[in-house]
Amino acid sequence: MSLWLAEYSYGGLRVLGTSLAGEESFVVVPELNLAFDVGRAPREVVGVDHVLLTHGHMDHAAGIAYYFAQRMFVDNDPGHLYLPKGLVEPVRRLLRVWADIDGHEPTANIHAAVPGEDIILRRDLIARPFKVNHPCRRHDRSVVEGLGYTAIEVRRKLKDEYRDRTGPQLVELKKQGVEITRRVELPLVAYCGDTAPGAFLELDCVRNAKILLLECTFVEPDHMDRARAGYHMHLNQLCDLLPRLNNERILLTHLSRRSLLPEARDLLRRELGSEAEERVTFLMDARYRRRRGPRRGQQREDQPRPE
Ligand SMILES: [Zn+2]
Ligand SMILES: [Zn+2]
């Protein structure tokens, strides 16, 4: 279970999550019935029907089997997991192994997510996967590219040319088979998982999402090399990118355990000023943080494993 659960509300959406590099990352949007990444599958994740997994690093993916097992345990439908294509077979294998361990292979709906191919979550909601810049190298040296996802509300809007028509006229047009509405997409929440800067930041569904969750693993000036080596984002890079982003709110995730949150917040404030801080903030910032467990002591040194 997560030690901390951040809770951030904006524009009628709640963003619940925990995100610490190498330890655990997940974000749940209950109003959209979805989670981005599974983390260690805390109950907030188990409670939603759709999990959009960005990549296979343990801090994002550890709870996959537990998610499906818990869904069965509380008599929910199995739930749906969407993940990079290269991970589908290994995850199916992982679930089968659980039959050898505890006698039950959890029932699961597993779907390959492909960049640009929309996932229909409900009639008025889709998720659009996009490729980020966080390649994951497996032990056989093959690479699985990381994904991000945007949850997009889909509406039908009356076409401008029919705006002056009366109700009965519109009904008549519809009867004649005329398409009087057009599709409108409202990008609500974009989640980029782990990533270095990349072309995905030019996508409309990322730049214009109401809420953008973007990683900022490293903040200290001498940590730029670490950011590059691990395909992660550094605060300096983030500041360069901000002018091109239209998001109303940007929540920073995946802070390294090498950095303490108050110091990271000070560095962010120094770069952006206190005014910009309302728009750009760390997800785990204390103002939105609820105590869930024992207080963390001094930050531990990172283990040398991908995160
Ligand atoms: Zn990570
Ligand atoms: Zn990672």
Overview of the structural elements:
The protein is α/β, with parallel strands linked by helices. It has a single domain, classed as 4-Layer Sandwich (Metallo-beta-lactamase, Chain A), CATH 3.60.15.10. The protein is 25% helix and 30% strand. The protein has nine helices and 17 strands. It is globular. About 4% of the residues have low confidence. Bound molecules: zinc ion (ZN) (2 copies).
How would you name the oligomeric state of the polypeptide chains in this document? single chain
How many angstroms does the end-to-end distance come to?
18 Å
Fold-level CATH name: Metallo-beta-lactamase, Chain A
CATH superfamily label? Ribonuclease Z/Hydroxyacylglutathione hydrolase-like
- Summarize the amount of helix as a percent range: 10-25%
Ligand roster: zinc ion
Major sheet characteristics: 8 strands, mixed
Strand order of the largest sheet: 7-6-5-4-3-2-1-17
Strand content: 25-35%
* CATH architectural type: 4-Layer Sandwich
Coarse morphology: globular
H/E order of the elements?
EEEEHEHHEHEEEEEEHEHEHHEHEE
* Contiguous runs where pLDDT drops below 50 for at least 5 residues: 291-303
